[in-house]
Amino acid sequence: MENNKKKLQIPSTCALLFMLMIVCTILTWIVPAGEFDTEKVGDLNKVIAGTYHTVEASPVGPWATIMAVVQGFYKAAKLMVMIMFVGGAVEILEKTGAIHAAFGKLASKQNLNVNVLVFLVMAFMSIGGAAGVFANPVVALIPIGIILATNLGYDSFTGFLLVYMGAYSGFNVGWANASTIGTAQPIAELPIFSGFSVRVVLNIINFAICYFFTIRYMKTIKADPKKSLNYEAGMSVSDSMGAGKDGAEAIEARLTTKHLISLIGLVVAVAAILVGSVKYKWSYDQIAATFFTLAVVVGLLNGMGINGTTKVFIGGCSKMVNAAFIVGFANGISVILASGNILNTIVYWLSIPMSGMGSILGANFMFVANLFINLFIPSGSGQAVAVMPLMVPVADLAGITRQVAVQAFQFGDGFSNCLFPTAGTLMGSLAIAKTDWTKYAKWLMPLLGCQVILSFASLTILQSIGWTGL
Asked: Mean pLDDT highest for which of 32-36, 41-45, 204-208?
């Protein structure tokens, strides 16, 4: 029986990603290599429609597959460092007791309405996501969401939902997202961020869907903690669920001066990241540096000393190694696809059926095509540059408005960001929340189904009325 159980065990996330790398390696031997001609327009390398051509095959061999793991780690190095530095900073904040004291005080309030609190947190994240602020930086906020959720008596996955699902409920249909529609609309020769009002409505609807499934999950695990995605057979409830205000391990709610200083430092750091990301185009390295600064300042102010601060910081980083490795393996997949020169072939094949479809069916197929393209090109801006030059002429031929074509791209890129294991931000966030991707994917299916229905309904209506967003 024990041997049978071992055979039925689901592979770990890193193992699953390596298996996908092997599958992609096999595809490089099957799928013809191909390329599009490109032209430089401003800072963008735009694909020229109608220029697809096959090139000499470059199948990836076994040794190159192993090397792709290393190259994937190099490619994701900045994100991996950011994840570990966030872990180090959060560990120091936890050692000071500042976050636990603040959230413990919040959770101890007898008149606290958890549903309202969840709504406010997710709404804040959704607005930031829709504005393009919370994309990659969302990884840095997952530990804070986890601390809030566990202090309220829920599990780590609930913290993931509050932060990641909150942010991507806006990012996926963002009305001011520079990396998606901010890149796609200029390629489609549309005014940047045009169609604002419709996308705000879509954001509200998508937020309502995500909020509903989050609350439903929280109610489910409160009634039966064994249904938590963090629960494993043999665990005690306390291992997967936070104590909450009624728990035996209630959090001390007294806020000291040092706690307040630490919390102010955290707020300043998050504010700096938001301003830096929007105004100065900060990336992973600046965010990592910000959290490193936070860790040093908070550690020294709380009397940990140089050695103590260093020890706690490194301990926090070590807790994030698994999350960082997952991101590295996820990037290894894109290395293999690029090395085999099959990315453009996959995009080309998916674009062919659209040329013979009507406008409404074609618009919906655009969404489906972009949904699957995101498996191979998880970058929103990268997918926009690769796909939109192809979609625009196809849309013109099929009578699809360019604004609808942009929305089909945004739906396809956005909603799959919450599913595909090639999305490094998703996999890193899940790893921080100690949630297995296979369990998460199964949980996500009903929510994703609602989002797919929203996409089909929206694209059908918008194309039917000839939406131009102008």
From this structure: 204-208
